[in-house]
Design a protein that fits this description.
The complex is a heterodimer of chains A (95) and B (120). Chain A is mostly helical and 95 residues long. Helices cover 75% and strands 0% of the residues of chain A. Chain A contains three helices and no strands. In chain B, 75% of the residues lie in helices and 0% in strands. Chain B contains four helices and no strands. The longest helix of chain B has 28 residues. The N and C termini of chain B lie far apart (59 Å). Classes of the chains: A mainly alpha (95), B mainly alpha (120).
Chain lengths: 95, 120
């Protein structure tokens, strides 16, 4: 059973680091928002895996809090952000 | 190692794999809408798999309800965020037209402009 937890931890860590690349690279705010959502989901996966590994239920409240806070954060950013002006050429196509 | 342990292991590993594919998709795909496509679906499904695995392993504890509540909140809130972000990305032309096979919002807008020929 130990090998299962190790494999899950390695995959989740790799997922978090790969997602952080998109979070840093952009190019637009929405890309960062999507990456942030993915990062929070990966974090929640990791907390759930930790709860299953350690049989410690105190972190489950953190899971619920993260689910709600990430929703409020994403909707707030989508609602109140300032639109980007300098987009790269690849995505600045007029319809 | 009981049968439930094996089920837990399969669920947690499946969830972790889906989270990894979501991360790879977010980095590799070319524009915002395809990144959302890569991020949202494996993210929700992977999280649900991990949560089910955790709930099976934590069976009998009083706090399993919080795990189930988390899954419920995720399923409820993910479509709202996806809707808002997708609409913003479309409105700001932050997408690649050549990757769209069908643009129903454009057809709808054109239908409206030409004033009429509403099929519904």
């Amino acid at each position: 059973m130990t090998i299962v937890w190790v494999i899950a931890a390695v995959m989740l860590t790799a997922a978090a680091f790969i997602t952080m690349f998109r979070l840093l690279a952009g190019p637009s705010t929405l890309d960062r928002l999507v990456a942030l959502d993915t990062l929070v989901a990966v974090t929640m996966c990791a907390i759930g895996t930790w709860a299953a590994f350690s049989l410690d239920t105190t972190v489950t409240y953190g899971l619920t809090a993260l689910a709600l806070i990430s929703f409020v954060g994403s909707v707030s950013v989508a609602r109140f952000r300032v639109p980007d002006t300098d987009k790269p050429d690849a995505v600045r196509k007029q319809r | 190692m009981s049968a439930l342990d094996i089920v837990t292991a399969v669920l947690v590993l499946g969830g972790s794999t889906l989270a990894l594919t979501a991360a790879i998709g977010v980095v590799r795909f070319p524009d915002t809408l395809t990144r959302m496509h890569a991020a949202t679906k494996p993210q929700v499904l992977g999280l649900l798999l991990v949560l089910v695995g955790a709930a099976i392993r934590l069976r009998g504890h009083a706090d399993v309800g919080m795990v189930i509540l988390t899954g419920l909140f995720t399923v409820i809130t993910a479509p709202v965020v996806a809707n808002r972000v997708g609409q913003l990305a479309y409105r700001e032309q932050n997408i690649r037209d050549d990757l769209l096979t069908k643009d129903e919002m454009l057809e709808f807008a054109e239908n409206r402009e030409s004033g009429g020929d509403d099929q519904n």
